[in-house]
Amino acid sequence: MPEHLSGILLSAGMATAAGLVGCFAVMRRMSLASDALSHVALPGIGLALAFHVHPVMGAVAALLVGTLLIWGLERRTAISTETVVGVVFSLALAIGSLLATGEELVDALLGTAGTLGAWELGLGLAGAAAVASFVLVERHRLVLSAVSADLARTSGVPVARLELLFLGAFALTVALGLRYLGVLLMGSLVIIPAATARHLARGLTEMLAISVGVALVSTLAGEAAAARFGRPSGPVIIIVAAALFLASLPIRRDR
Amino acid sequence: MDLALEVTELSVAFGPTQVIRSLGFGVPRGSTLAIIGPNGSGKTVLFRALIGSVRHGGQVRWAPGTRIGYVPQKLDIDRNLPVTGRDLLAAKAAVVRSGGLEAARALELVGLADLQAGQPIGTFSGGQFQRLLLAVALMGRPSVLLFDEPTAGVDEPGQEQLYEMIHRVQQAHQLTLLLISHELSVVYRHATNVLCLSRERPCFGPPSQVLTPAAIEQLYGAPARFHRHA
Fold it and tell me: Which ipTM did the prediction report?
């Protein structure tokens, strides 16, 4: 497959996953948390670079540890996810920036364009497919437990396990986007399209569809524009997404 | 007696604060238990202990084969999200799978129009929203219904209608009903037993014995403001 085509395919997969996961993150008021969660990848990337491992592997490992950490803390203390994530992952950002230095740090923070290996493509697509199918298959359980955990529990939904799986899907989505968007911006690709969809949609299916649409348009248009003007793709993608969000604000749906 | 629920020595503590202390009561099958008490006396906490959402001491024994329908007082999400009534019904239907009540039948039971169900939940009035949540609960064909303040945010004529509707559904499906309520006159009329939660003196018994003016004054720290219906 030509290089640019596989690149487009992978971006589309990542954007779809981000759009879907974002809807439930917005629903669960994780907007700020998700930004911070993406920062936890940084110490992982730093360690991976220090030990000459592929940075994405380090990021995935760090994100998984981070996910388990929030899940555990949330269950054991009465502090909200928002607070836990805010504290723990600002710390992660601080540690990460000490471990990685100079150019590596800029790449990790803002994403980097580079050639795509076959295994990276395969792994990326598999990850995106896993996240997208998880959200679509489990959407009913996810809605019910977001609406009321007690209601979901009495209906027989294993709420704690679902929560862990959702956080895992979230972490995986962030890992998928690190290459293009970097640690700082990936959280935004999860949240901005979903926030746009929240504003425009009237029902859940519409919300999921609009969110995926906005994420896809932002990513693909952003990459094309970035390539044309010779700029890094991450910031351009987020600018497109934010522009779409702002453009949606004057639209008032009757409800 | 055929009990749907038996609670013995139940206690719940959050850190150093003891919210519920060695509480015991039984709920006969098909009866209505009203739980009353001032704000902060642990009514919702008791519900959450009964469904296993909070850690507790003592024992909560549901009759074998009990299916719980839970109507929470507050949602965990913002009501202005793009989620329609139908989204919630579809979610519940998918979770209970076969054997559940159909959404159309559940809506009919609670008297909610089909057209309304297709709207985002943010557009529902207080009464409509409680009906929707009750419809969601009924879809699982519960044997026990836990209803946390059915009339919170519902105007007065609506409250009466809502209680009538709940009563009708209870009769039709032979449900055991556990109800948290502030409406003492409704409690007086519909409840088989009343459980009043208070730090000093919890009480339990039929309304005619428990809801005496003196007891209410002691419970709420104010004279009774309910009227007996003829």
Answer: 0.86
Burial of A146 (0-12, 13-18, 19+ CB in 10 A): buried
Is the C-alpha dihedral spanning B12, B18, B20, B21 positive or negative? positive
For chain B, the farthest-separated pair of C-alpha atoms sits apart, in whole angstroms, at 50
Size of interface A-B (CB pairs under 8 A): 96
- Give per-residue pLDDT as tens, B22-70: 899 999 999 999 999 888 888 999 999 999 988 899 999 999 989 999 9
Tokens 């238990």, residue located: B33
Distance from CA of B207 to the nearest CA of A (A): 29
Q: How far apart are CA A95 and CA A40, in angstroms?
A: 9
Cα separation, B42 vs B48, whole angstroms: 10
d(C-alpha A254, C-alpha A234), whole Å: 34
Dump pLDDT digits (tens) for B92-122: 999 987 566 788 888 988 888 888 899 999 9
Instruction: Report the residue of chain A nearest B54, measured CA to CA.
Output: A150
Task: State the smallest CA–CA distance between residue B128 and chain A in angstroms.
Answer: 15
- Structure token digits, residue B92: 């519940």
